[in-house]
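Propose amino acids for all 83 sites.
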């Protein structure tokens, strides 16, 4: 699925009441809504920045995996850069 800029009606980024983390909802012209958790958007931004700002890099792939040893407060499921 390719989502063109003109397919997007609205993007809402907010911390919902009673939550601590950002949620980003993309509303499409056809009525489809997709809500992303903060960690997912952070991974997307990290991948985008890695490609956009690197002088020769043209691709980054992140793969979801379980991380047993992680920093306090981090989720067990992480999107990690794959080789």
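Proposal:
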């Amino acid at each position: 699925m390719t989502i063109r800029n003109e397919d997007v009606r609205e993007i809402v980024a907010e911390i919902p009441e009673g939550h601590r983390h950002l949620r980003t909802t993309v509303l499409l012209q056809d009525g489809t809504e997709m809500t992303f958790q903060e960690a997912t958007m952070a991974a997307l931004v990290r991948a985008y920045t890695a490609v956009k700002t690197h002088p020769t890099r043209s691709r980054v792939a992140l793969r979801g995996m379980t991380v047993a040893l992680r920093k306090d407060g981090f989720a067990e499921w992480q999107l990690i850069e794959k080789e």
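Strands lie at 8-14, 23-28, 33-37, 62-66, 77-81. The chain has one domain: 5-81.
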